[in-house]
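Lab notebook, design round three. We kept the backbone fixed and only want residue identities now. Task for the bench partner: fill in a sequence for the structure below.
Input structure tokens:
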């Protein structure tokens, strides 16, 4: 039995996990999984009977809640890379969420926290590889290189609304950096709206066929992407 200190008549949201030998995230996950009921004393605290019942099942609770807390994208992707011994690109965690494989369990500094329990029990290596390939994020220059276009061509694609960033991160000196998703670039390369052969064959200094694309109007009156 895992308890510390003298038994109390009731336990608060910090006292309960501390005296039960649970990390706060384990306690919160156990509540989410229904392994620990909600507070039964004034809607704010847990009775000694509820606490004692949890202590009697503490090994089961710990096993069910796992060992990995909910984590940010970088840590989630490192975990998957280590787990499957594969390269996992930045953007994979978000892509797994898009595909319904990785729940988001909150946020930290406005960035999503991914379910540690789902990461710990993930078994499908192929799904991770596919998500890594599709969700891989590129800086603007790398995205333009992937498309095989010039910087001005890239601007035309943004202006026309045919491409937009997938994510914005903070760069050096607190600048905002737009990142572009591989799957969006692949989709654009398959688009029949663009004669890619003509675009790629246009010499430097000549007007790009992409310049003729109509500008997409936005509801806020701004243009571009």
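Proposed sequence:
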């Amino acid at each position: 039995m895992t308890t510390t200190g003298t038994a109390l008549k009731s336990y608060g949201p910090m006292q309960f996990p501390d005296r039960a030998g649970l990390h706060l995230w384990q306690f919160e996950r156990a509540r989410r999984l229904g392994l620990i009921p909600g507070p039964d004393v004034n809607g704010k605290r847990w009775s000694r009977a509820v606490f004692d019942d949890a202590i009697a099942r503490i090994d089961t609770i710990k096993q069910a809640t796992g060992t990995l807390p909910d984590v940010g994208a970088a840590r989630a992707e490192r975990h998957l890379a280590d787990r499957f011994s594969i390269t996992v690109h930045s953007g994979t965690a978000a892509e797994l969420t898009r595909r319904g494989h990785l729940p988001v369990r909150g946020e930290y500094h406005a960035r999503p926290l991914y379910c540690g329990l789902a990461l710990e029990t993930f078994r499908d290596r192929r799904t991770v590889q596919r998500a890594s390939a599709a969700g891989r994020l590129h800086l603007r220059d790398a995205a333009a290189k992937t498309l095989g276009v010039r910087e001005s061509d890239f601007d035309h694609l943004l202006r026309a609304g045919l491409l937009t960033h997938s994510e914005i991160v903070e760069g050096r000196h607190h600048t905002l950096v737009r990142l572009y998703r591989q799957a969006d670039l692949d989709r654009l390369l398959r688009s029949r709206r663009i004669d890619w052969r003509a675009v790629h064959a246009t010499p430097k200094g000549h007007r790009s066929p992409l310049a003729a694309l109509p500008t997409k109007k936005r509801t806020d009156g701004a243009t571009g992407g």
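Keep this in mind before ordering anything: Residues 84 and 124 are 9 Å apart (CA to CA).
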